[in-house]
TrEMBL record:
Tagged with keyword Repeat: no
Keywords: Signal
Species for this entry: Streptomyces resistomycificus
Signal sequence region: 1-35
Protein name: Secreted protein
InterPro entries: Glutamyl_endopeptidase (IPR050966), Peptidase_S1_PA (IPR009003), Peptidase_S1_PA_chymotrypsin (IPR043504)
Top-rank taxon: Bacteria
Keyword Signal attached: yes
Length: 400
């Protein structure tokens, strides 16, 4: 639903809660170990790392394999870095799963450019949203999104924003750091929506994709951010995507309103820091992914986290919604999606949905589509196809 143009939560602690607290459902779905007993004040020795230094815009460091892939498509690496990536001609807009390239352009994503990024809604008309009511549960009542507590690095460090460039300009989504089954404790994997990295059936891969965990850590206003330090805007720095995977269902069937690809609208990203050697999980913590694809009737509550950017929100603060999920069907030929009441708007696309499994918070879906009146969100079930995508990413790229 809301994505940025293809179209946002992370944690400072190392572990999710392993028990249900008595302080309410929000604590049961805590995204960090300190989320329910931390304060809004930072504590000594628990401050986010300073933002990494930046080199002049346009300076590029590209692994040989990536440079070779660019050349295979007739793209000059230096020209690409100097602005050639802005060429969105069909013959230059790489679309196949194997064609993803995302060379690091250090200094490109400055705070002011991040703030200029626009959401890319994946909204349905009232008629489309009524899709297949024979399989869909009644439309849920709207649930007003509530602001996440600050600082985000203590309450939702694994959640962040995914920035990228599209033919229409800079865009933004949400994403979540997830664990890497083959590289325990050292994951560099981020979960988001497929439409946050690929345009679907009528386009290709987006460019200059970056993940910023715990963006705007203190939840400052636009006026306050004008004087904010780099560490306050991006407390853990920028993490460039060096490989992205999304489903064939999204690549082939995704559209401006989600299309038949909405039921497969998920993506796994592998990232690396602009500087530093620690993994993303060592930096922010990470969450497990639940691929059991439980029926909506089996789950009492799901929570969605993200950075809504379309009015009445402005994309600067993290919000969340908690609700009992229902079923949403676009077609009898497509997998049923989850649906919850939620007022988050575009920009929240790709943000993780969580549930408690055996006392542990796990990612179970991500925001994909929603209606034009912003009363609910729908996300894909993560079953065998999603698990295969994740496993392949882990085995092929996880150790890089």
């Amino acid at each position: 639903m809301r994505s940025t143009r293809t179209p946002a939560a992370p944690r400072h602690g190392r572990r999710t809660r392993n028990f249900l607290t008595v302080t309410g459902l929000v604590c049961a779905l805590a995204l960090t170990a300190t989320a329910c007993n931390g304060s809004d004040e930072d504590t000594a020795g628990d401050k986010p790392a300073a933002g990494s230094s930046r080199t002049a815009p346009g300076k590029v460091k590209i692994p040989a394999g990536v440079a070779d892939k660019l050349r295979e498509h007739g793209i000059d690496v230096d020209d690409w870095a100097a602005g050639g990536w802005k060429d969105w001609d069909r013959d230059k807009w790489l679309s196949d799963a194997k064609d993803f390239v995302n060379p690091v352009i250090e200094g490109l994503w400055k705070p002011e450019r991040m703030q200029s990024a626009k959401e890319a809604n994946k909204t349905l008309s009232t008629k489309d949203a009524a899709a297949d009511q024979g399989l869909s549960d009644p439309e849920p009542a709207p649930v007003e999104a509530t602001a996440e507590k600050t600082p985000y690095h203590q309450n939702a460090a694994p959640v962040g924003k995914v920035f990228f460039d599209t033919p229409e300009g800079p865009a933004v989504c949400s994403g979540t750091v997830v664990k890497d089954v083959n590289h325990p404790g050292r994951s560099n994997l981020v979960w988001t929506a497929g439409h946050c990295v690929h345009a679907g059936g009528n386009g290709g891969w987006y460019r200059n994709i970056v993940f910023v965990p715990a963006y705007n850590d203190l939840g400052k206003s636009e006026a306050q951010l004008a004087d904010a330090s780099a560490a306050e805007v991006a407390p853990y720095g920028n993490w460039w995507v060096d490989w992205a995977s999304t489903s064939n269902g999204w690549i082939q069937g995704g559209s401006e309103t989600g299309g038949t690809g909405a039921a497969y609208d998920y993506s796994v990203l592998h990232v690396k820091p602009e500087s530093g050697a620690k993994s993303l999980e060592e930096t922010t913590g990470a969450l497990d992914v639940d691929f059991s694809a439980p029926s909506a009737t089996e789950v009492a509550t799901m929570g969605a986290w993200g950075y809504p950017a379309a009015p009445p929100y402005n994309g600067l603060k993290m919000f969340k919604c908690l609700d009992r999920p229902g079923r949403f069907s676009l077609s009898t030929s497509l997998p049923t999606m989850y649906r919850i009441g939620c007022t988050m708007t575009g920009g929240s696309s790709g943000g993780g949905w969580f549930r408690v499994v055996d006392g542990r918070t796990k990612l179970v879906s991500n925001t994909s589509i929603g209606p034009t009146d912003n009363t609910w969100l729908a996300g894909p079930q993560l079953g065998q196809d999603a698990e295969a995508l994740y496993e392949n990413m882990s085995k092929t790229y996880g150790g890089r």
